[in-house]
Specification:
single chain; 37% helix; alpha+beta; six-stranded mixed beta sheet; Pdz3 Domain
């Protein structure tokens, strides 16, 4: 009986300790070394994209540095930031690292320590995105607690992963989560000394702002100035249509697609009705707006391409995974199921992989024949204008890449965070590190997209626009939709031309 009470005491004591854990607690270097070794082994054996943008020498070197760096680390937050940096270094937007459940639960309960003011990156600068504070809307942040703006953007940007060497996608992450990222990287502060410059001013001013808790930071963000124009990027799509179709006049229409996570049967019927309407009424211009589209699943991206291209299309030229015999390091593979079901899940997973990725050669498993999508009879034959942004990722950036490569569309906006030539995607997996309980996830399929090599498309970059159009500070202050207004202006200017001069527009 005494032993039972002792066991209960240990269990309760453990639960209380776990419950009280915070991001800033000390964390032993021995545990860091253990988890870093597990993390490295998992990436090397299971992550097919590990060497896409980094050479083996670079990967080996960064891990040599990381093991040495542990000697300088003391807290859980230190270790989380090390793993987050390694996660980002690989160059895949499908990479993520998450806090342990107990740490995350306590972090969102914090009642102080967070930077209170919503910020946004405009023309490469961090600017104030709220009218609710003494620092005016649009003021440029010079430094926060003596951390200069350039450092702030680089340091906090690592939490928002992008494909390859893309940087603009990180800016969108800062727009959404700067306060949270600041807390992760620098820790909590009672207050913040902000050096800033007013609009059109060169002289610097200083203000001290008191910190807020996690919930208040979220509340402040929900009242940001730019919400009316960018809320789709943040909010669930339950209360808005996932795709819309609007006619501007008798020759121009706009098809907006916020996501490719759709019921493909319903979406296909919708697309068919839209493009039948466009063809019957002989529309000349179609604007396709995917600026808030973070991806989704096939066949929705390819169904849309089939209504734009006049040649057969396939999603990828090649797809493979880097292991051949079951999921590596299954011991750490995370599944939200009871432990006694794990052996069954392992067998099912192995069988599934053999069926879906059956071709084994050169130490890899390759997917079966990749489906080809034929052009639809009622495809659009007028001029397409595709609007893109840093929010475009995964299946949406693949769609944008195919449209740019294989159609005559004019692409307008900003570089996507998803890659043009290839990316890791299709099959997301999660692992849980044994000591820190950090979760890390990535997609195991390496996908080479079926696109042409273009001079305008450097390797390792997102889909580049034919015409780069970014929101100016003036447009930000007025909440103007810069890219849409620019596109409509182009269309209006070319309405009376017999044939649009694409090269002139791109210049």
């Amino acid at each position: 009986m005494k032993s039972i009470y002792y066991l209960l005491f240990l269990l309760l004591g453990t639960s209380f300790t776990l419950f009280g854990q915070t991001l800033d607690d000390t964390f032993s270097q021995k545990k860091m070394q253990k988890d870093l070794k597990v993390f490295k082994n998992i990436r090397e054996e299971a992550n097919s994209g590990l060497y896409t943008y980094r050479s083996k020498q670079e990967i080996d070197s960064i891990y040599d540095w990381a093991f040495e760096e542990i000697k300088n680390l003391n807290t859980y937050r230190d270790f989380y930031n090390l793993i987050a940096y390694l996660t980002d270094y690989e160059g895949s937007l499908h990479n993520s690292t998450y806090l342990a459940d107990a740490i995350q639960a306590n972090t969102i309960k914090e009642t102080e320590g967070y930077f209170p003011i919503p910020l946004k990156v405009i023309e490469g600068n961090l600017v104030v995105n709220s009218k609710a504070f003494d620092i005016p809307l649009g003021a440029e942040i010079v430094s926060i607690n003596e951390h200069p703006m350039e450092e702030l953007i680089k340091a906090t940007g690592m939490y928002y992963t992008t494909d390859g060497y893309n940087e603009t996608g990180r800016w969108m992450g800062l727009d959404m989560s700067f306060s949270r990222y600041y807390r992760y990287y620098y820790g909590k502060s009672d207050d913040f000394t902000v050096v800033y410059k007013g609009i059109g001013q060169n002289n610097k001013k200083q203000a001290v702002v008191k910190s807020v808790g996690f919930e208040e930071y979220l509340q402040n963000d929900s009242q940001r100035h730019s919400k009316e124009i960018d809320e789709i990027r943040y909010d669930d799509l339950d209360d808005v249509k996932e795709y819309t179709f609007n006619k501007i006049d008798s020759s121009t229409a706009i098809l907006t697609i916020h996501t490719f996570s759709l019921d493909d049967k319903i979406y296909e019927k919708y697309l068919d009705s839209v493009f039948t309407d466009l063809k019957e009424h002989k529309y000349e211009n179609l604007i396709i707006d995917i600026r808030n589209n973070g991806g989704g699943s096939k066949p929705n991206d390819m169904l849309t391409v089939a209504y734009l291209a006049d040649t057969p299309q396939k999603e990828v030229a090649e797809a493979w995974i880097s292991f051949t015999n079951g999921m590596p390091y299954w011991k750490y593979f995370y599944l939200d199921i009871p432990f006694y079901q794990r052996p069954i899940a392992r067998v099912k997973f192995k069988k599934y992989m053999k069926n879906e990725v059956p071709i084994v050669k050169n130490g890899r498993r390759y997917y079966r024949d990749i489906e080809i999508y034929e052009p639809r009879e009622n495809r659009f034959e007028g001029q397409v204008y595709l609007l893109i942004s840093p929010a475009v990722a995964s299946a949406a950036s693949l769609f944008a890449a195919l449209v740019k490569s294989n159609t005559k569309a004019i692409v307008i906006g900003e570089e996507t965070s998803g890659g043009y030539y290839e990316h890791n995607g299709s099959f997301a997996v999660y692992y849980k590190l044994p000591k820190s309980k950090l979760y890390t996830n990535f997609s195991i399929a390496n996908l080479t997209q079926d696109v042409k090599e273009l001079d305008s498309q450097p390797f390792g970059r997102g889909v580049m626009p034919d015409i780069e159009v970014t929101q100016s500070l003036e447009d930000f202050l007025e909440n103007r939709d810069t890219q849409m207004e620019f596109t409509l202006k182009i269309i209006e200017e070319n309405k009376h031309s017999l044939k649009i001069n694409r090269e002139k527009i791109k210049k």
